[in-house]
Amino acid sequence: MTHVSRSCASHPQTIPTTMPIQEEFKAYLAQVGYSESTRINQQRHLTNFFNYLQKPVEKIRKVDIQKFNEYLQTKPNKMHGGALSESTIYGNMATLKVFFNWLETNQTIEYNPISALKLKKPNTKIRTPLTTEEIKELFDTANTLLEIAMLHLCYSCGLRRAEAASLNTKDIHFTTQMLYVREGKGKKRRAVPITQKVSLALENYLICERPQTDEKESFIINRRGKRMDGYSYNVAIKKLKARTTITREVSPHYLRHSIATHLLASGVSLENVRQFLGHSHLETTQIYTKVNLRSYEL
After folding, report:
1. More confident residue, 76 or 217
2. Cβ of 35: how many Cβ atoms within 10 Å?
3. Are residues 167 and 285 located together in one domain of the fold?
4. What is the mean pLDDT of residues 140-169?
5. What's the pLDDT score for residue 124?
6. Which of 173, 195, 229, 241 is most buried by its number of CB atoms within 10 A?
7. For the chain, what is the domain count?
8. What residues act catalytically?
């Protein structure tokens, strides 16, 4: 606490200079259609940047951006240990690029310190879908209706993490067995048909285990009685996986990747899988055809 007080006292202009701009930037991101989870991550990236640099935006130069990038290379990963991943570092730097480009467009700054910097994209990691046996183990290991509901949203319904977090109780129609994604990626809407088994599992959570809270709209509720965010979905799925014999990575996106692969392996057409996932272009869905589908036939 003492360190924070000295830091604030030595840079009295930092908070009033950056905070209003960050709030305006946050509003801009929402206006152009960034998802809530992306906006939260980008605000976290900016906060890290300004806490490290302690400079008002108009005084930031290219060398400051480079120093921050070097700092990220050595910063420890508090959650998993070791260094930050390439994708985490790239996400931080990509946020700065969007932020400073926005400031330049609005003529808030005369000099864009990141415009000449080329960002190194992380190596794309090939995601190996979970097998049907591994999916079954996850469901068998789940010991709460909440865990079962989360698995169904991410796997059986193929929702993105942000879509699951944004899901409201009114978006699930148990009678007609339809789930509606009101605002997917790019603000696109879609209807997802659900089986009777999935419908029953989601309804059981809603009736029997969902906490009584003032948060009336949100479907999945955390322990504090608030809407569960995308980050918490990730943590919860990883904790569930830790209780299984599965040794490789499991996340909401891996579950979504897995259901796409399993549907294609069972003979569902590429176009139907595209609609199910909410992809705008068939080319995006075609990445799942690169997997050896024979290994995943149901």
Report:
1. 217
2. 22
3. yes
4. 95
5. 60
6. 241
7. 2
8. 160, 185, 253, 256, 279, 288
